Amino acid sequence: MLSETLETLLLPVLEGMGYELVDLEYQGAGKGAVLRVYIDGPDGITLDDCAAVSQQISAVLDVEDPIPGEYNLEISSPGVDRPLKRPAHYEKYTGEQIKVKMQKGYPGRLRLKGTLKGLNDGQVLLEVGDEQHTLPLQKIESARLVPDL
Fold first, then answer.
1. I want to staple 146 with a disulfide (CB 3.0 to 4.6 A). Which of 27, 90, 97, 117 is the partner?
2. Residue range of the domain that includes 128
3. d(CA 104, CA 112)
4. How far is the C-alpha of 116 from the C-alpha of 124, rounded, in Å?
């Protein structure tokens, strides 16, 4: 799968530069295709960070050439409603408000919003009001932080 190949190529580069790979997206085809790489750092992300990462990633992608044809590379911060993709994200943001969308076919509510209580043995613990939900990580379609504005 392309996203796994890209992650394998880019993760060591980003970690070596002191950044976290939050997410990857590849959309479109031909000249309109876009590879978006979302990064984060201990002090957030600046335009200079994006430029430095873009330069390094471009070099790796030019050499390895994992994507056939033309595409545009975009580097960005994950934003205030950052996605939660990896188990470490759920652990890091325990205590925060999140919104979760479950995969179709999941028995129960497909959209939930509540306080992340942690991750235990592949299960996301979510408190919605006075209800506790245990959600299988593999059945979560998407999860994002709810911005505290």
1. 97
2. 87-145
3. 14
4. 8
